[in-house]
Amino acid sequence: MFSGSNIVLCFLSLSLLSPVAISEKCHPQDKKVLLQIKKEFNNSSMLSSWNPHTGCCGWDWIVCHSTTNRIRWLTFQAPDVPNTRLVGHIPASVGNLPFLERLEFQNLPKFTGSIPSSIAKLKNLMYLTITETNVFGPIPSFLGQLKNLELLELSFNKLTGPIPSSLSQLPKIRSLYLRSNKLAGLILDSFGLFKKPSPDILLSDNRLSGPIPASLGQIDLERLDLSKNRFVGDASVLFGSKKRLQYLDLSRNLFSFDFSKVDFPKSLGMLDLNHNNIYGKIPVALTKVEDLGLFNVSYNLLCGNIPQGGYLHTRFDVFAYYHNKCLCESPLPKCK
Predict the structure, then answer these.
(1) If pLDDT is split at 50, 70 and 90, which confidence band does 32 have?
(2) Residue 165 to residue 180: CA distance in whole angstroms
(3) Domain architecture of the chain: domains with CATH
């Protein structure tokens, strides 16, 4: 026989598990915004769990704060079934989620339109990712207003125009990834204004051009990728024995500088300079960079002996050196 107290406890337990109780674990204003977003996505089947009769903290693509139940993460990634992918543009309504810390749109090829200005209202945003979409237009300067932003990942889209100088005003930025777009124009002097520790900067496969500013050599970053652009001139300012640099890719540009006068940090693990107009000799100091795991200076104007000793002639094969002006010694043929 159940006692009266047991029956009451049982009833309370069932109540806590009921849809009504669960729906209370969702801030009503956030829920209203999410249902508006679903409407803007034409009630996509990808959002089938977004049932107005259930708590939004249990919906797919969402993470809530454990105590306040405010929406912290909104992360859309295309599922394996193509027909369920989101179609449309970034809803302006996302700007009405004031406690949002992470916003992601990934692998959504039917996603178009520009980046809405309402994103500037997300003052708590730390991570903004828009990748592998057909989002187009310029990178908006208002992104510089997101003072808590640590990651800005806008790679593999259709973005055009210059990189706005306002991005250098992001005080907490640690990763700036703008690869594989149609960005054009110069890198501005403002890129030397990033606060320490400087962010990783990946700008490969765009249409950026001109010389790099001297200020870029004043920041101490770990990863820099400027490959597959139209840069010209002297890039030696990016090197330095006291820097933290680990990864540097300048390949497939028109850089021209004397490689023999460059100093290298001991932390360097990857250096790719292929397809440029770099001249001079390969510095002997490179033989002492023990962590160098990838090295390529092919298709340049280098001359002289490849320094022996260390790993330059044993770790890297002929393809790291060929098509230069007059390089010789192992792994290339001996000097005459």
Answers:
(1) very high
(2) 19
(3) 23-185 (3.80.10.10), 203-336 (3.80.10.10)
